[in-house]
Amino acid sequence: MSDDLAAYLKALPDRLTEQLSDVLREEAFRLSDAQRQTLQSLEQAPSDTGDLEASCTVAAGRSVLEYFVQAGGDMTTKEIRTGSGEDYDYAVGFEHGNSRQPARPFFYSTFNSLKDDMAENINDAVNEVLK
Questions:
Q1: Could you give phi then psi for residue 77, rounded to 5 degrees?
Q2: 39-45 long-range CB contacts below 8 Å, 24 or more apart?
Q3: Strand, coil or helix: what is 58?
Q4: Residue 88: in which H helix or E strand, if any?
């Protein structure tokens, strides 16, 4: 094996990791921003989705190649009824609907509309490093 090929192969994992980390982070924030925009188009009053919209975030995972796009959680989990002691994440009700409101999907529908384009951007990043 030539020295050039050996050097290329040795550097490849680091180059891929660096390039992919950047692209994965960009795509995660792009998705989160799009989910917030979808929420804004669905809201009936700003008070309906203020905490839900703010809960749309990106969290870093355990490695530089892992990002979590999330919504809901602590910001949108409230007691079902005062004094009930039962918590309910109204992000789930917003996304899937419940007995009091129809579904107003913003999370998975946005992901599904962007996933092919996001995958293409990730593939392009890999191909750029491999050239």
A1: -95, 120
A2: 39/106, 42/104, 42/106
A3: strand
A4: strand 87-89
